[in-house]
Amino acid sequence: MRGIYHGLCVNCEGVISDDRLLQLGVCEKCVEEAEAPRSWEQLLKVLREKGRLYFAEEIFLFHQRLREFSLFFKRAVGQRMWSLQETWARRILLNSNFSIVAPTGVGKTVLGTVSALYFAVNGRKSYIIVPTALLVQQVVERLGVFSERLGVNPKTLCYHAGMSDSERREALERAARGEFDILITTERFLISHFDVVGNKVFDFVFVDDVDSFLKSPKNIDKVMKLLGFSDEIIASAFRIIELRREASRLRRMGKSPEQVLNEVERLRSQIEEYKRQNKIGLLVVSGATVKARRTKRIKLFEELLNFQIGFKPDFLRNIKDYYLTVEASPEQHVLSLIQRFGGGCLIFVPSVLGREYVARLSAFLNANGVRAYAYMKMDEEMLERFQNGEYEVLVGVASYRSPLARGIDLPERIRYVIFAGVPRTEIRLSWDEYNPVKLLTLLKNVREFLEANMQDRASQVINALRRVVPVNRQTVENIREALEKGFALEGFDEYVRRVVLEARNFLKEALTPKVVEAISRSREVSLKQRGGEFFLVVADPVAYVQASGRASRMFAGGITRGASFILVDDEKAFYALKKQLEFMLGEFSPIKFSLKAVERWFRGIDEDRRTIRDIREGKISKRLRDYIKTALLVVESPTKARTISRFFGKPFRRKIENITVFEVSAGEFVLNIVASMGHIYDLVLNEGFHGVKVEDGRFTPIYDFIKKCRKCGDQFTGLDFCPKCKSQEYYSKKELVKAMRKIALEVNCVFVATDPDIEGEKIAYDVYCSLHPMNKRIERLEFHEITKKAFLQAIKERREINLKMVEAQLVRRIEDRWIGFELSQKLWHRFQNYRLSAGRVQTPVLGWIIERINESRKKKRVLSAVLSNGLRVSIENPTLPFPSQNLEEQLKNLKARIVDLTTEERTLHPPPPYTTDTLLRDASARLGFPATKTMMIAQDLFEMGLCTYHRTDATTVSTVGIGIAKEYIQERFPSLFVPRRYAVEGAHECIRPTRAIDVERLKNLISLGLLHFPKRLTHDHFQLYDLIFKRFIASQMREARLIYQKFRILVDGNEASMENPVSVVSEGFNVVLPVKTANPVEEGEYTIKFARILRLPAARPFTQGEIIALMREKGIGRPSTYAKIVSTILERNYAVERKNKLISTPLGFKVYMYLCQNFGKYTSEETTRRLELLMDLVEQGKADYNEILKELYQEILEIRKV
After folding, report:
1. Which among 444, 758, 929, 1061 is least surrounded, fewest beta carbons within 10 Å?
2. How far is CA 469 from the centre of its chain?
3. Are 527 and 537 in contact (CB under 8 A)?
4. How many helices (H) and strands (E) does the chain have?
5. pLDDT above 90 covers what percent of the chain?
6. How far apart are the first and last CA of the chain?
């Protein structure tokens, strides 16, 4: 038993041990140990017999309904549900509204149909809405087959265009009278005959092909009424949507939206109350891809039913990217590829060539025997003709707006794509523009060519433009007229006008001939002149991803293989495309065309299409169709959740128990991502021995949910009010656990991806214990960098919870609580101050600060002089033959001599990559960051996928890290790359960047919109990233060779020795981390230009970075605790920070002396170091954590006696 948890018994929500949680989740008060049942059924029976069945009944009934539905499904369909179908069934049985985005062939319609039948058998009404009359008939036929197999006879009613007039009249009459259990119609029925069913409330509505359904957005209002929402509540939801837009507009204008948001909360409370008081039906919408625009009505799903429609899996691709260089027009190459590889091809021409070229290429192909169609606008009839083989290829423009590049999902038909030229676009190089979107596009692409001082200004203008786009045409026209005629506008239009004016003025100033020349020299951007104007020609990576993605789609067996051919007609654009796609996708390495390799890949492409065909025809095995599973993924923070979800496209959100869940498809798994917001539980205050149960020589921590005050942000446990500000408004992690338990019931498995250290392992164990009663398939993911590649690798290498790491955290937390509480109480009694605290590590660190301050009070005399050759000299404790008051006058007659000058060449090795302590030290010294700020920013960089994990004492560089350094160095300094491992024992790696992107490149990629992060990167983020990046790159570079001068300076019997690097012989890491050199000197006699005597401290007070370096050196504290220890000393006013130096206070001195005199044995440096080593041994599995706690317990009892 490693813990006792308050509130986790699934039946009485009482206290329960981890052992019991890992059995059936019911505490000893509900069921005694001797009669512990082995199954849910037995448990339910025992609880009922004893009259102790409480909250568990809902869970037991869910399992009962799931078993019942599973059997119902198997009898109806003739086989068990697949994993995805079971997840959807679980959600339906849990009464959750949701959106299904899944490929054709995984049984969406079958699940919806069986669900409607299940509701009908249980006396509830269902409505199935499909896109076509043919599908209505198919669903009716399927319902008939299923009903016959089940031996039931529900009242089924359908309506479609294929029925006779009399059949339609009869159907409408029956519908009006409510004579049906299941209604099946097309969405057209809602437009033409809503009045017939508008007064009905359905228990279950299933919308098959939501894209077709949403072509008439007013269908959404109608479905909401059919689910039981009144016109007034729907109007309130619309009002919320308008208010949210207003709040967004106010934020963009720099105004407070507080009043608007208060009204939003009032209306939301009104809606929630209505849902509690009224019967509301269940809605499930389904589609292979959901392409719906987020219109005002689409947002009704979010406001009334707590889910968003669909997600975009843009970055899920299984494509080989091939390229061929073309000298002239690419038409003949396109024709050759089609003749070789056949139909099922989409052809994209660069947007710079336009529609005229699309028509020309299409005509050329038709003239040469290839059935081609120029696809300029969305045309479903032509898509159908392409799908059935009438057309072999479709030709369109390579643009993210192109109908051919977005929204087409034909995995069985589309095998490959051809880019008849590198996808690229033109941007007019002029400040004379009124449309903020066009101004933004231009600024994003010229920013990197501006001078350094202008780049920061450009970023500010870009951010201002981003806050106002998109804008409608009328606003653009209003701005144009206002700027041309010189008058102001009102409201938001005036705000946009000012932003546009600022952008125009900036561009007028920034677009100099020097900038145009810099653009013309670029490796990535071309400059063309036409009609007296310049145009930038830039690669279009977004268009490439969207267009090529048509050939690789999700299906029941995974992601189809596809091919993309790029005909390279612009080398600069192709180079830029490669670089930008590498940044966007993480990896992108196009392959030079080789016929044999391509033919081999096409065999796999065609095998996937045959599989899809077999799935559609019902010939494929269950094993393949069960490829996609669902998982709950628990991480610590919303930032981490958003970063991971964006690896796979745009996620959609749903709310469960007021907790946001990000849902996205990662190929093999559909992930439901939830943030734990750090630890979920902490030790209680008023039970056991300071929150630890002591019994029979065993020590078991007692945990309760962490609560956070909504007013002051303080965290606490066990109380119903904030101990700091006494507010009763707080958020409890109990809500989070409820939500996670509900999701755990839905999914096939649970992954816990908390940080890779003992704190992260403890959070993982807490999640494991909390969710185990709901889902026993719980596994740990560990990764030290948040990249798509590292994440997918972690899924492959998932493991069990490391209990030794959990035990190490238990020892650390209990020791911290015991020693902290005992010593703090002593301090409270002694000083009558209840804000004071003490800790085992904190005390010696405070002692070092005090000791250094005492040393700094001792002064030393220093002669500081500047010689006539410019050399600065310092001589400690000089002896001079005259009083120091007349120093400057007297020194005019003195000479300084440089003697014993020697010169030698030295090899200077680069410093190793950062560890936590060295990063904190340098961030303090170079950036002036306090330790807590550095750790907070480093946490952001880690969670946004920019740097590896920042709590580490290892300098080890992985193979991936060496690859990143190699890519960056070989492109810029080809001869200077020298890989180094810096290997130390342990699993952790150094702190390093996750990509070969320096800070300027990073800023530019963000400006271009190619990199998106869940949080805005500030100047501080960029500074720290730059520090980490340069240090790491330098560590993988050649040594530098420098000339050093060593000499002595003599001034009237006083002497000082100096040595300085004076020149670089051979460049190395110093090109990234410059080595400061001095001017060389010569032996001889020099006059003294300036001198003064200084009284300086014998030792300087510590900076935060220096004290942390000392902690590392002396072996106390750990990477996860360094910053916290320093911040606690400052918070308790034991020390203050002045000019980046730590100065002990009188209070700090008194507290330290009291602790040393009375408890020195327990807070000494040696005792603390020994305990840290013991904790490390527990983590390594070499020591028993309970034995260490026994020893600590005896120690605490001794402290009590003092």
Report:
1. 1061
2. 24
3. yes
4. 42, 40
5. 77
6. 32
d(CA 1135, CA 1143): 5
1102: tokens are: 């510590």
CB 756 within 8 A of CB 723: no
Burial class (CB in 10 A: 0-12, 13-18, 19+), 1003: buried
* Closest alpha carbon to 246 in 261, 262, 234: 261
Distances (CA, A) of 19 to 29, 774, 935: 14, 15, 35
CATH fold for domain 61-228+279-305: Rossmann fold (3.40.50)
Kind of pairing between the strands at 715-716 and 707-709 = antiparallel
Q: How far apart are CA 853 and CA 1129, in angstroms?
A: 15
Q: Which candidate, 1194, 1168, 1174, places its Cα nearest to that of 689?
A: 1194
Q: What is the C-alpha to C-alpha distance for residues 916 and 1083, in angstroms, rounded to an integer?
A: 44
Helix (H) or strand (E) holding 705: strand 698-705
Q: Are strands 282-287 and 558-559 parallel, antiparallel or unpaired?
A: unpaired
pLDDT tens track for 405-427:
876 888 899 999 999 999 999 99
The whole model's pTM is what?
A: 0.90
Check if CATH label 3.30.70.20 holds for domain 859-909+1041-1097: no
From the candidates 544, 768, 949, 1185, give the one annotated as an active-site residue.
949
3-state secondary structure of 17: strand
Of 2.60.40.10, 2.40.110.10, 1.10.3720.10, 1.10.460.10, which CATH number belongs to 819-857+1101-1201? 1.10.460.10
Helix residue spans in 663-802 (DSSP H): 733-746, 758-771, 788-796
Of 306-320, 336-350, 554-568, 857-871, the poorest mean pLDDT is in: 306-320
**What is the SS3 assignment for 437-457?**
HHHHHHHHHHHHHCCHHHHHH
In this structure, which CATH number among 3.40.50.300, 3.30.420.10, 1.10.3720.10, 2.40.30.10 belongs to the domain 319-423+541-622? Answer: 3.40.50.300
The strands making up 859-867's β-sheet, listed across from edge to edge, are: 872-876, 859-867, 1084-1097, 895-908, 1040-1051, 1054-1066
Phi, psi dihedrals of residue 242, rounded to the nearest 5°? -65, -40
Q: Parallel, antiparallel, or unpaired for β 730-732 and 98-101?
A: unpaired
